[in-house]
């Protein structure tokens, strides 16, 4: 283990869960309470004023697990203190990023860990309604979270005057609309409002004008699960895990060409090498093959390569290489994978999922997808690799939301690193690799 | 130096643009500020009248200290902001965006109606890289037929959503939306249904490319081969500025004012853009119609035959002279309400000076003498200076008895917009809410037809702190008192002005009570009623003042040589028509008689024409009236003549002549002038300009018409009555006022006159002019325009066994003779009341004074032989 990975680390988010996702058998309220669950809520509601809750979350430095790593406490602090109308909390459980599936086991097996954090968050920002926007395909998650909410209402932990305090809260589960873009926080708000999942312009920011144009906090499932842990086990406990700037545990989703794909909980700051090769995690590359590349944070971020396995997997580490921790969805590609094909595969996704609102992303993803389709079939024209790089430049930083830039993630570091491999498709007028997995038409 | 009036202090901030400091109002939209300063910034999705969408990403600027560019349309001017609109980064953004927009854009320019005025063409030339790097096939969409007026070619769409936002925010119709995802996105309507909105044509202009184009204009012409004539729409009294686009003397299209760029490119000026209605846009094609009157006609026995101008003029002069010699009450002029100020002025001169009569009047739309008198009084009382009808400037806007959307759409739109944006508090008071304007009202109140005046009186009482036991009236009075300024809009010709006698005095008293900070805008459907009144085409008024005014008389006598007409007011148009019907008039001159053609009192008009030996008509189209006339003189349309017009806001607008009238037809002012000359008048004018200068001097003392100048001439005022009112507070968006909430006001008892079994009282109005005579000649539009409709209360409809979309007959007397109108349900209508455009459904009602007391009661039955 790396120097950051506390050797005594006990998985706290996933507890009993091991690598693979298990279905069914979610933790019941009584079991959760037996382990100290909802003690956090009790203490917060009875003892701490909202401002103090925000202070503690700031102190714990819970980085947003949804991708950007923005400190949750700071975000909550943006909500106006003086309440002039409803405030809202929206839980981002839309988890649609390829190779990212860490929210799913939390909702399926430990829904109360999410709900406790949601209640604390709502209390801290004075919201009386929270929505949990769960990816529509996650039927089990929707069922388990709803069952857990029902338990809470029955136990007086939701609804009017929770635990006989002045605080009231309703939580609604909202089924996702079936589009990746609805995970983008402002598109998610539009979607809850019943509109088309189009990201909004910023400013205004959701903390000022969010859901129904009211102040709104949007947090990822795992972020709120961390909040529960902080108030159950204390700020010090939380900060004892992980790195200084990125404390706490993290669920890493590992998939692709590894021996043991699955979700693994580890302290933030574990190295990429450990995650891929340790027996308790990925267990090494399948078939004894050589590692070629991986996405460190979901397919939206630029890739890491063989000589970069030492990357420290916290919010700072990947930045040194020009990429991001993102959603810690690690998709592994071994030596048998054609990088042109991989890029095509991902571009198909982003072309398909672009909401089409803004020019560069709508047109750029479609154009790159067409070029990559030809390129991969050996029908590329000389100069088109450079054209792709140029298109990426024309998209990045110029679109409404980050999806435009995400679409360039599979290319920006990959082309310079594997230029010959891309070029070989043009020169040889065919793909030099044998194995093919999917055709994209 | 000229002294400036005090303007509200706006904090100015310093914004550095390309290294140069500029001062802009704090918080102003940055893109608007830059464009206003003539700093070019290409943009597609931003439109000054719509919310910011920020999706085209073309308006990007570089911000100092930020490696990422930002979209200027979503930035505001803040102090110390430093941006660049010209830099390598900005150039690369623009080039990149233009290239992206062309990835899927078809090479349609040669066959695209937008060519030559397309913003995609334009920016491609100005900001594009000039070469194409795209080799792949373009995406293609099926082409639906979704709207009768608007053609859609989705392959050309750049998805800027201007059209969607227009329909949502201005049209208030929510019919357009984006369907699909990603680059498969497309603009559409549910089930490819029509966009269906009276303002929908504007999306053709605001679409920056050739995706949405005009069907009537489709493949007709290229913008650069057209002649543009700045004009004013004559179809209603909103008097929108328009540009008429002509080729070879034919109207190709009508748009809001446009602009030709130095490079020959055409753009509709966005900043000053005024949205126009579909009637104004598509309804002007009538001028092209081959049935136009192109020669003079004279009666020979049973038929009208072609005549030389000379003969026709001789016949006309002879008839006028003969009648005038018999006495001033034997000759009369009815001046249609769509003429220019100069035409009215000349007609007035001809009547008063040459013929020596005061029997000249424009008020043919009114069904009784009292209604017409009161309309004249109201117009006379209106303030001349409403500052471009900027309704948002008023704290409170009160709309009384006015069918604004249906008769003067853009006035309605201005009010609605201001209310929707929260700039003005809208109060609507009517006997039949339209459900369109009233939806934006803070308070919308329905009162029994005929009792609106009493409500206004009650309000007046409450304002004076008196009685008004009705708490809603006190509440309303509070709103009025709290307002620092306000506007009162009063519909004068609803139901032919049947409520005027009571309503006008009450509203004028209210306006006077509220004081100087309140403006008063009386509205009639027909264009330039105000001009007719001001220029003396009204029996009790000379150009510039009352018929009794000594100064006016002396001044005009000097201009005209003589002024023989007496100082006693002549009869109003309804009275003239009645006198004619009794056979008391020898010669009748009808100038522009479109109002009479589909007049609801058809029988009266027929009798009047039949009983009058000489009927001289100056008009542009044949009609049953020209058929019945003795002499017909072919005239001209607005863009075929010069002249001036008084706008709804009291402003003088000018008409520019862009075209010759067809055949032998002549400009109307020349016809009137020649007639007058032949009658022996002393003065001749050689140009419209000459008339205009004289007219300006003549009418100047009476402008602006301030409320304090009001002299009420006409029937005495009704004594104030305590109103029985039903008020409802508008809780947007689910506002409803239910007449039926009060059991004692159930249908039947609620009306001025009890409604007979199975009958409905019709609150009628003059629908926009295109709905009738002229509309029928606008062939391009005639088949495409929405059908005539009748609004019913849903419960009444159920009782009658008819539903939304059904066609109904309105038979019997009174009844309607047009094609069966389509039923629309309007739940804000009181029970027992129907609402329709009289000219659209071709209403026929009696002419006896007894009928005038109330509304026509009609029987409705489902039309048979419709679709199964
Ligand atoms: C295209 C796109 C998709 C996203 N999808 C998700 C998602 O599925 N789940 C998620 O938590 N955040 C997603 N995000 C990030 C959210 O916008 C947002 O940053 C996050 O929900 C904030 O929560 P956190 O601060 O707790 O991380 C996405 C962002 C983008 C641009
Ligand atoms: S970047 Fe892509 S996903 Fe985001 S708003 Fe623009 S088109 Fe939609
Ligand atoms: S929309 Fe403009 S660029 Fe496109 S085909 Fe038409 S004229 Fe040409
Ligand atoms: S149809 Fe025209 S206005 Fe509407 S989105 Fe497309 S380009 Fe824009
Ligand atoms: S509102 Fe009236 S004046 Fe304006 S365009 Fe329409 S018809 Fe013409
Ligand atoms: S005009 Fe600013 S993004 Fe379109």
Could you name the key traits of this structure?
heterodimer, A: 441 residues, alpha/beta, 5-stranded mixed β-sheet, 4-stranded parallel β-sheet, 9 strands, 38% helix, globular, disordered N terminus, B: 868 residues, Ubiquitin-like (UB roll), Rossmann fold, Dimethylsulfoxide Reductase, domain 2, 7-stranded mixed β-sheet, 6-stranded mixed β-sheet, 27 helices, binds flavin mononucleotide, binds iron/sulfur cluster, binds FE2/S2 (inorganic) cluster
Your description of this structure?
The complex is a heterodimer of chains A (441) and B (868). With 441 residues, chain A is an alpha/beta fold. Chain A is built from 18 helices and 9 strands. The longest helix of chain A has 18 residues, at 359-376. Chain A is globular and about 75 Å long. Chain B is built from 27 helices and 39 strands. In chain B, the strands form 11 sheets. Chain B has a 7-stranded mixed beta sheet with strand order 16-15-28-27-26-17-18, sandwiched between helices. In chain B, strand 7 and strand 8 (186-189) form a beta hairpin. Mean pLDDT of chain B is 84; it is low at 1-6, 703-754 and 849-853. Chain A binds chain B through residues 179, 196, 201, 203, 351-360, 362-367, 370-371, 374, 381, 387, 393-395, 397-400, and chain B through 52-58, 60, 67-69, 71, 74, 92-93, 96-97, 99-101, 103-104, 133-137, 139, 158-159, 177-178, 180-185. Flavin mononucleotide binds next to strand 4 and helix 15 of chain A.
């Amino acid at each position: 283990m790396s120097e950051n990975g506390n050797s005594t680390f006990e998985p706290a988010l996933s507890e009993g869960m091991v690598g693979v996702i298990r279905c069914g058998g979610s933790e019941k309220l009584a079991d959760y309470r037996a382990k100290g669950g909802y003690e956090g809520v009790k203490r917060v509601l009875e003892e701490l004023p909202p401002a103090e809750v925000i202070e503690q979350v700031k102190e714990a430095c819970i980085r947003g697990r949804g991708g950007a790593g923005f400190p949750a406490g700071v975000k909550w602090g943006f909500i106006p203190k003086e309440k002039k109308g409803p405030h809202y909390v929206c839980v981002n459980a839309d988890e649609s990023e390829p190779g990212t599936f860490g929210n799913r086991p939390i909702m399926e097996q430990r829904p109360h860990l999410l709900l406790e954090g949601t209640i604390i968050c709502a209390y801290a920002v004075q919201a009386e309604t929270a929505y949990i926007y769960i990816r529509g395909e996650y039927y089990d998650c929707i069922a388990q979270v709803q069952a857990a909410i029902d338990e809470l209402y029955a136990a007086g932990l939701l609804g009017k005057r929770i635990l006989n305090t002045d605080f009231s809260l309703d939580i609604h589960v909202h089924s996702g609309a079936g589009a990746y873009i609805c995970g983008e926080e402002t598109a998610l708000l539009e979607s809850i409002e019943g509109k088309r999942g189009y990201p909004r312009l910023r400013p205004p920011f959701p903390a000022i004008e969010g859901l129904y144009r009211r102040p709104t906090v949007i947090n990822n499932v795992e972020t709120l699960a961390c909040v529960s842990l902080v108030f159950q086990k204390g700020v010090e406990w939380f900060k004892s895990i992980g790195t200084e700037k990125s404390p706490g545990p993290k669920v890493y989703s590992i998939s692709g060409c590894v021996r043991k794909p699955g979700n693994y909980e580890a302290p933030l700051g574990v190295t990429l090498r450990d995650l891929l090769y340790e027996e308790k995690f990925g267990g090494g590359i399948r078939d004894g093959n050589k590692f070629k590349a991986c996405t460190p944070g979901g397919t939206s971020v630029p890739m890491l390569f063989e000589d970069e396995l030492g990357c420290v997997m916290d919010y700072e580490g990947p930045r040194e290489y020009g990429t991001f921790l993102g959603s810690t969805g690690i998709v592994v590609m071994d030596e048998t994978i054609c990088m042109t094909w991989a890029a095509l595969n991902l571009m198909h996704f982003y072309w398909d999922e672009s909401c089409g609102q803004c020019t560069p992303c709508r047109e750029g993803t479609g154009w790159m997808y067409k070029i990559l389709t030809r390129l991969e079939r050996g029908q590329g024209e000389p100069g088109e690799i450079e054209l792709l790089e140029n298109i990426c430049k024309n998209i990045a930083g110029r679109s409404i939301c980050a999806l435009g830039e995400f679409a360039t993630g599979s290319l920006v570091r990959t082309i310079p690193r594997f230029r010959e491999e891309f070029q070989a498709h043009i020169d040889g007028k065919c793909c030099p690799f044998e194995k093919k997995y999917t055709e994209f038409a | 130096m000229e002294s400036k009036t005090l303007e509200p202090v706006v904090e100015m901030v310093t914004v550095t643009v390309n290294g140069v400091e500029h001062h802009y109002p704090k918080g102003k939209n940055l893109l608007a500020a830059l464009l206003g300063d003539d700093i070019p910034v290409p943009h597609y999705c931003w439109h000054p009248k719509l919310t910011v969408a920020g999706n085209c990403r073309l308006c990007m600027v570089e911000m100092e200290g930020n490696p990422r560019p930002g979209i200027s349309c979503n930035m505001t001017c803040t102090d110390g902001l430093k941006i660049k609109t010209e830099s390598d980064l900005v150039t690369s953004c623009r080039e990149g965006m233009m290239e992206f927009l062309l990835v899927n854009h078809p090479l349609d320019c040669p066959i695209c109606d937008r060519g030559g005025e397309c913003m995609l063409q334009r920016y491609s030339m100005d900001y594009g890289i000039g070469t194409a790097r795209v080799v792949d096939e373009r995406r293609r969409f099926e082409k639906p037929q979704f709207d009768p007026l608007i053609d859609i070619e989705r392959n050309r769409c750049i998805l800027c959503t201007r059209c969607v936002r227009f329909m949502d925010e201005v049209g208030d119709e929510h019919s357009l939306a984006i369907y699909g995802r990603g680059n498969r996105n497309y603009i559409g309507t549910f089930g490819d249904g029509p966009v269906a909105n009276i303002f929908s044509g504007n999306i053709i202009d605001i679409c920056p490319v050739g995706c949405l184009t005009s069907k009537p204009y489709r493949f007709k012409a290229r913008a650069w081969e057209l002649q543009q004539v700045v004009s004013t729409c004559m179809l209603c009294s909103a008097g929108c500025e328009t540009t008429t686009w002509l080729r070879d003397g034919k109207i190709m299209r009508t748009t809001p004012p446009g602009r030709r760029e130095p490079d020959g490119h055409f753009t509709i000026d966005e900043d000053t853009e005024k949205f126009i209605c579909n009637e104004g846009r598509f309804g002007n094609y009538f001028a092209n119609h081959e049935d136009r009157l192109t020669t003079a006609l004279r009666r020979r026995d049973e038929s009208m035959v072609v005549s030389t101008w000379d003969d026709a003029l001789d016949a006309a002069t002879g008839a006028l002279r003969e009648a005038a010699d018999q006495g001033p009450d034997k000759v009369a002029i009815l001046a249609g309400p769509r003429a220019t100020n100069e035409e009215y002025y000349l007609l007035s001169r001809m009547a008063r000076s040459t013929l020596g009569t005061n029997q000249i009047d424009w008020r043919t739309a009114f069904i009784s003498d009292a209604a017409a008198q009161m309309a004249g009084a109201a117009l006379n009382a209106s303030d001349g200076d409403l500052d471009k009808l900027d309704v948002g400037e008023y704290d409170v806007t009160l709309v009384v008895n006015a069918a604004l959307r249906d008769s003067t759409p853009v006035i309605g739109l201005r009010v609605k917009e201001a209310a929707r944006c929260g700039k003005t508090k809208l109060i609507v008071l009517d006997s039949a809410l339209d459900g369109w304007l009233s939806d934006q009202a803070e308070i919308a109140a329905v009162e029994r037809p005929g009792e609106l005046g009493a409500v206004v009186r009650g309000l007046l009482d409450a304002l004076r702190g008196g009685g008004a036991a009705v708490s809603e009236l006190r509440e309303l009075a509070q709103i009025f008192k709290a307002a620092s300024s306000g506007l009162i809009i009063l519909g004068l010709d609803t139901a032919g002005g049947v409520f005027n006698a009571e309503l006008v005095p009450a509203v004028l008293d209210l306006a006077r009570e509220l004081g100087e900070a309140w403006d008063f805008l009386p509205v009639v459907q027909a264009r330039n009623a105000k001009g007719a009144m001001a220029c003396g085409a009204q029996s009790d008024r000379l150009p510039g003042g009352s018929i009794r005014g000594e100064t006016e008389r002396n001044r005009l006598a000097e201009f005209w040589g003589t002024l023989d007409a007496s100082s006693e007011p002549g009869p109003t148009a309804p009275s003239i028509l009645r006198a004619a019907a009794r056979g008391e008039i020898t010669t009748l001159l009808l100038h522009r008689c479109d109002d009479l053609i589909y007049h609801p009192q058809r029988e009266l008009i027929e009798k009047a024409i039949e009983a009058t030996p000489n009927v001289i008509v100056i008009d542009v189209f044949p009609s049953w009236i020209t058929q019945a006339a003795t002499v017909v003189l072919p005239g001209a349309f607005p863009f075929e003549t010069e002249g001036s017009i008084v706008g709804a806001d009291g402003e003088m607008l000018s008409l520019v002549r862009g075209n010759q009238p067809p055949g032998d037809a002549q400009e109307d002012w020349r016809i009137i002038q020649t007639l007058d000359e032949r009658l022996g008048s002393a003065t001749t004018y050689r140009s419209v300009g000459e008339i205009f200068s004289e007219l300006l001097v003549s009418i100047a003392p009476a402008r602006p018409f301030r409320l304090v100048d009001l002299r009420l001439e006409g029937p005495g005022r009704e004594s104030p009555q305590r109103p029985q009112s039903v008020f409802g507070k508008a809780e947007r968006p689910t506002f409803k006022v239910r007449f039926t909430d009060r059991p004692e006001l159930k249908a039947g008892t609620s009306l001025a006159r009890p409604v007979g079994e199975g009958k409905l009282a019709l609150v009628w109005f003059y629908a926009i002019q295109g709905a009738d005579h002229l509309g029928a000649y606008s062939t391009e539009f005639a088949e495409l325009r929405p059908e005539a409709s009748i609004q019913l209360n849903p419960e009444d409809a159920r009782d009658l066994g008819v539903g939304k979309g059904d066609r109904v007959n309105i038979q019997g007397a009174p009844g309607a003779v047009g094609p069966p109108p389509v039923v629309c349900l309007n739940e804000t209508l009181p029970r027992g009341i129907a609402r329709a455009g009289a000219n659209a459904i071709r209403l026929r009602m009696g002419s006896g004074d007894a009928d005038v007391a109330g509304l026509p009661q009609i029987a409705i039955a489902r039309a048979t032989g419709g679709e199964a």
